[in-house]
Design goal:
Blueprint lengths: L1 H10 L4 H26 L8 H32 L20 H25 L6 H32 L2
Length: 166
């Protein structure tokens, strides 16, 4: 009975596979929005003010970072929690494939969230004249919360690794 229960629990990890695959649709939706933004910008490029162009470029960078985060979570999550990917020899293989455990994935996600938040905060500051001071303050507080959280996670991860070698 115990072995059956353990096998069922171990097999249940495959429930995550469609979730990770579903993230590829989110990546596709992000790509559509990315190119929609580029197509929207193209006819107005010469008449767009520099500050507005920078805001659009920051939005594109933001989308690229989120896309990279999705790929990282999709592939690493699948490899860590479902099954290893079987990539044929000679095929292009991502350098971090098979090397990112759940702890390092968590750190990469935290760092990506801080980077995305930084870009969003920069976009807000570039448009600060149109935003209430209260809202600006909350954007900064939220961003600092992400920064402190990522730092604390990194510190805890480092302390945990250092203690495991004792």
């Amino acid at each position: 009975m115990e072995r059956l229960l353990e096998n069922m629990m171990y097999s249940a990890r495959w429930i995550l596979a469609p979730i990770y695959f579903g993230l590829s649709f989110a990546l596709l939706a992000l790509a559509v929005k990315f190119f929609q933004e580029l197509i929207h910008l193209a006819p107005h490029l010469l008449e767009t003010a520099e500050a507005d162009l920078i805001l659009v470029v920051l939005s594109l960078v933001d989308m690229a970072l989120v896309g990279g985060l999705l790929v990282m979570v999709m592939i690493s999550g699948y490899e860590n929690f479902v099954s290893q990917l079987d990539i044929d020899e000679g095929k292009e293989k991502l350098s971090w494939l098979g090397k990112m455990d759940s702890g390092s994935l968590k750190m990469k996600v935290a760092a990506s969230i801080v980077a995305i938040s930084s870009i969003h905060l920069l976009k807000v500051f570039m448009n600060a004249t149109n935003i209430d001071n209260d809202k600006l303050m909350w954007y900064v507080v939220i961003h600092l919360t992400f920064v402190v959280s990522a730092f604390a996670m990194g510190l805890l991860d480092k302390v945990g690794k250092d203690k495991s070698y004792d």
